Amino acid sequence: MVAKIFWGEASRTSEPEILGKVDEIAKVHSSVKGHIPELLWHYKFTNSTSAIREALSVPDPTTGSRILYILVFRKLKPITELYGRELFDVWYQCILCTCHLTLWKEGVYHRDVSPGNLMWYWQDGKRIGILNDYDLSSLADVTGSRGNECIGTIPFMAIDLLSATGQRGEVKHLYRHDLESFMWCFAWISLKGVRLFQGLRPVDEWATLDARACAVEKFFFQGHIEVPAHLHKDKLMWKFLVDCFHVLNTHSFNRVTQLYRSMVEGDKPTNSEESESESDIDGFLLSFKNTESWAALSKPSQ
């Protein structure tokens, strides 16, 4: 078992409540069952930080108020200890069986995909992938949330969300943003054994930059991938990385082209107005699954 102790925002839906919704979905959808965190026990303290702020005569004491939670989970293994096909298999399960597909379509939005939240465990001799940590997640049917709050772990956030408008909460957090985070996570993890000058990994610097600077570095990496291919030991994994970022580039180019065309026609769309249908969700994921490298990695190993 492992305990998670944290100060959650009082205004947000609590993680135990969200996990309760996730558990309900798992009872209906077999693709989710077994791929969700197992919450064994939890406790919510009644006193919030607003009481302390009020006692200290801090202006607007309820703004940003937090409550202490204690959650106890079944202990899981980190995805960062995996490599090659084993890494791909667990990573792929996290996308299909949890947040990215069924849960997202059912109105549970994770919105903080990072390597530390991708976990797994053994069951009947197989690795079972789990997308963990729902304290920053949101529910579609909860009123008052626009889904534009700037949350996430900077090195793995979608480039759109790292922009100035994204950091101001003017970009709606969509499914494609979380799926892009999965791609950045895969690059981060799979390149952990690749060393460049001074022993640095090509992505180490992302963790030291602010949002705007990180966006610039990631945008350049996405378009160029300046890691010499011969430094990557697994050629298929290298090809998969290249294919994934080619897909991201293509979608980004298409969105910009559509935006320019709208402006020429006299419309003034903004990113905050962007929405997506279930077909958009399926189509975006399918564009990755249709690559040759994804198909090759999905085949059972001989």
UniProtKB/TrEMBL annotation:
Pfam families named among the record's database cross-references? Pkinase_fungal
Where would I find the Fungal-type protein kinase domain in this sequence? 2-189
Where would one find coiled-coil regions in this protein? Answer: none
Q: Looking at the record's lineage, which domain of life comes first?
A: Eukaryota
Q: What is this protein called?
A: Fungal-type protein kinase domain-containing protein
Tell me the organism. Suillus fuscotomentosus
The organism's taxonomic lineage, starting at the top: Eukaryota, Fungi, Dikarya, Basidiomycota, Agaricomycotina
